[in-house]
């Protein structure tokens, strides 16, 4: 029998923290003279009451978790935060339906960035800030989950980072201190991004909102035009840098702070990520130039921003890149699945899994040529355990199977091929915009039927929690014993 009291206790803490976060947009709306401050106040009071009640009634602590409790807690944490995070959306002047409010909240906490809100330029400031806060909290939650939870649960090859996360007294002695150090780095990067964007011409409000969503690689903007509203090369290049910074392993930032500044560029994950980004940017920029769509300088600027945004899963846009031709659409669609480094705020399959797959495939080629040879795959100059290779192979299979199932489900709701396929990719890879006229960079998910939105919300959760964490709950074996 699984003991749920520790799980309820932790969920109570999370809901209480969320209630405190709601006070910030309430204050912003009150200062702006907008009546939605009352909505945030009531939502905060409701969440605080529920959160404290959960802690008091559970009469438990969170000092230790069994494996089953950890799986249940991880799933319920994201689901509960999305539910309570939807309250301001449902009762604000936007008058979103329950479906749309939950979709927007789930998109926020999973840092997907898909939106159903039309008219962001005229939306209440509290709502705009709340969207950014949800993504910012989701971003730091993703980092902590990737460092403290998934390696222990051995999800999708993440056990590869168990030693780096918990047995590295070179970084910090305990996991709690690592989480605290990462939080400081996360806050510092956000503050730096806000100061830079403010100095480049954004208002203070816009700078803070975009700083939170760029470091979190979330992609929620304060305008329907996203970053195209500012039409600034300096802002585009700056946010491109911040998206890349959010895509790198945050544990390596701690090591840099502790006196090893060059270590981050020695990490093979970072090297692969930067190489893929540079190669993709040059291909798209070359295409735009050779097709006389843009001059060389503009081609480099727009291709860099949008390629980085799609690969990191941020979802910002400065142009309707789906109008740049089939070649670019294929590249962008492929980049949706790639993602950034493990232990970052990004989404997708993650660079390290491609590295493990590549190393394993190379070993198989060598064994074909030299059947009696002894070869081992390596990652970051370390042998890859068979359990990690098997986990990564399983992850790839489940990812493809889940993507096909999502796309098929969306097709059953009457969506066209491009919308269904790109929507499924956008959800499971937590990217944000899809392709096509409806959900492309210039569109929103508002026109989709409610059933499709619930399915996409499930896809966001599935992708954000690395598939295994969710699907294991569907196994009867999990609930036995």
Descriptive report:
The protein is an all-alpha fold and 481 residues long. It has a domain at 353-479. The protein has helices spanning 5-31, 37-58, 67-85, 87-91, 98-109, 125-153, 162-166, 175-199, 204-215, 233-246, 250-257, 268-290, 296-311, 326-338, 351-369, 386-412, 417-428, 436-439, 450-464, 468-471; strands at 378-379, 382-383. It has a two-stranded antiparallel sheet with strand order 1-2. The longest helix has 29 residues, at 125-153. The N and C termini lie close together (6 Å).
Strand content: under 5%
**Strand and helix order:** HHHHHHHHHHHHHHHEEHHHHH
Helix content: 55-70%
Quote the average pLDDT.
Answer: 90
- Helix count, per DSSP? 20
Rg, nearest Å: 22 Å
End-to-end distance, in Å?
6 Å
- Strand arrangement within the widest β-sheet reads 1-2
**What class would the helix/strand composition place it in?**
mainly alpha
What sort of overall outline do the alpha carbons produce when their principal axes are compared? globular
Largest sheet: 2 strands, antiparallel
Number of strands: 2
Which parts are unreliable, with pLDDT below 50 for 5 consecutive residues or more?
A: 163-173
């Amino acid at each position: 029998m699984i003991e749920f009291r520790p799980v309820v206790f932790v969920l109570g803490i999370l809901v209480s923290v969320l209630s405190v976060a709601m006070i910030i947009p309430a204050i912003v709306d009150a200062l702006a003279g907008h009546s939605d401050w009352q909505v945030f106040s009531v939502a905060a009071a409701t969440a605080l009451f529920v959160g404290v009640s959960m802690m008091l009634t559970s009469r438990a602590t969170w000092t230790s978790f069994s494996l089953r409790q950890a799986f249940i807690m991880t799933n319920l944490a994201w689901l509960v935060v999305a539910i309570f995070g939807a309250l301001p959306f449902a009762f604000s002047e936007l008058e979103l339906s329950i479906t749309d409010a939950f979709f927007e909240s789930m998109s926020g906490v999973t840092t997907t960035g898909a939106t159903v809100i039309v008219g962001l330029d005229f939306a209440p400031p509290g709502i705009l800030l709340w969207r950014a806060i949800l993504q910012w909290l989701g971003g730091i939650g993703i980092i902590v989950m990737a460092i403290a939870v998934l390696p222990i649960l051995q999800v999708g090859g993440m056990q590869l980072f168990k030693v780096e996360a918990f047995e590295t007294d070179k970084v910090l002695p305990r996991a709690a201190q690592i989480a605290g150090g990462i939080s400081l780095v996360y806050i510092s990067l956000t503050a730096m991004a806000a100061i830079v964007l403010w100095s480049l011409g954004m208002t203070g409000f816009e700078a803070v909102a975009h700083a939170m969503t760029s470091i979190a690689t979330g992609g929620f903007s304060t305008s329907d035009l996203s970053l195209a509203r500012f039409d600034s090369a300096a802002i585009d290049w700056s946010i491109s840098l911040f998206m890349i910074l959010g895509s790198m392993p945050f544990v390596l930032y701690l090591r840099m702070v502790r006196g090893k500044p060059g270590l981050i560029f020695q990490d093979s994950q970072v090297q692969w990520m930067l190489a893929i980004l540079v190669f993709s940017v040059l291909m798209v920029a070359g295409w735009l130039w050779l097709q006389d769509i843009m001059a060389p300088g503009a081609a480099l600027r727009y291709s860099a921003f949008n390629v980085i945004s799609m690969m990191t899963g941020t979802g910002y846009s400065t142009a309707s890149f789906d109008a740049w031709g089939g070649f670019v659409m294929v590249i962008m669609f492929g980049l949706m699945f790639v993602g950034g480094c493990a232990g970052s705020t990004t989404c997708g399959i993650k660079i390290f899994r491609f590295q493990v797959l590549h190393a394993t495939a190379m070993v198989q080629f060598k064994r074909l040529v030299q059947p009696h040879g002894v070869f081992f795959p390596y990652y970051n100059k370390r042998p890859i355990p068979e359990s990690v290779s098997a986990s990564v192979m399983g992850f790839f299979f489940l990812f493809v199977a889940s993507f096909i199932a999502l796309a098929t489900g969306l097709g059953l709701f009457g969506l066209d091929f491009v919308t269904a396929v790109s929507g499924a990719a956008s959800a499971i890879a937590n990217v944000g915009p899809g392709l096509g006229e409806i959900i492309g960079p210039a569109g929103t998910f508002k026109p989709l039927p409610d059933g499709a939105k619930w399915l996409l919300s499930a896809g966001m959760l599935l992708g954000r929690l690395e598939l295994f964490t969710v699907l294991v709950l569907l196994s009867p074996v999990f609930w036995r014993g």
